[in-house]
Amino acid sequence: MPFLHSSIKIKSFNDYRIIFWMSIPIVTGIFWGIMTETLIGPTVQIDNAIENILLSDFDTHIEDVTYIGPYLYQKQVDGSIQVDIKSFVCLIVMVAIILLSMGLIVVSAFKCFLGLNVYLEVNRNVSKKYNSLQVQLFNALIIQTLIPILLMHLPCLTIFVCAIFEIDLGHSSVVMTITTALFPALDPLPVMLIIKDYRNALTNIVITRVVPVKKKKKKSRNENATNNF
């Protein structure tokens, strides 16, 4: 969107400061790896707690599984329950990371909304087609904002919160794996379907390439059926 080009912060992507932005996912990944290995890595206690579940529900032996995960409420030999501080800290950090990520997405989308309103107000004399494109881009941005929140953030947040409150989701936890896998495929669709030029191009491809191929295959099957008869 053109109204963002004048931002001083955007210029930081064009000089040495780009190193800072590129280092964020690297540093975050290193922190995540160290935290999970240190706080919720495999332990004998977790092995004993889940080996029967793995065997009965998934027909899998604990020796064949590599995992990381919190074991928050640990059952002791005397039957008492002890809260594992490491698991609790890790879960809180994970929830905080998800909430921070969601907050950044929502705030950024809201600021884009305000910026778009200012842009359209200032540039009333610009062609309707140009302003229409800006609105289409913003609508695509809103949908692309909702997709990761609905497919990744909320499912992950639900699992972590349920773990804190000792709520067993069972096989329902697999939903997070499915929705996360769907995200890369669904993420570009809003731009392809909402932006008019992209939508028209996609429609033309379907009409000129996909439909004729299907008709040709159908015709070939009909001819083969006639010949066989």
TrEMBL record:
Q: Name one GO biological process term.
A: olfactory behavior
One of its Pfam families is 7TM_GPCR_Str
For this UniProt record, give its keywords in alphabetical order, as a comma-separated list.
Answer: Membrane, Transmembrane, Transmembrane helix
Task: Look up the domain of life of the source.
Answer: Eukaryota
Give the UniProt entry's GO cellular component terms: plasma membrane
Reply yes or no: does the keyword rRNA-binding apply: no
- Per its record, what are the GO molecular function terms? G protein-coupled olfactory receptor activity
Q: Where are the transmembrane segments?
A: 18-35, 91-120, 141-167, 173-195
Report the protein name in the record: Seven TM Receptor
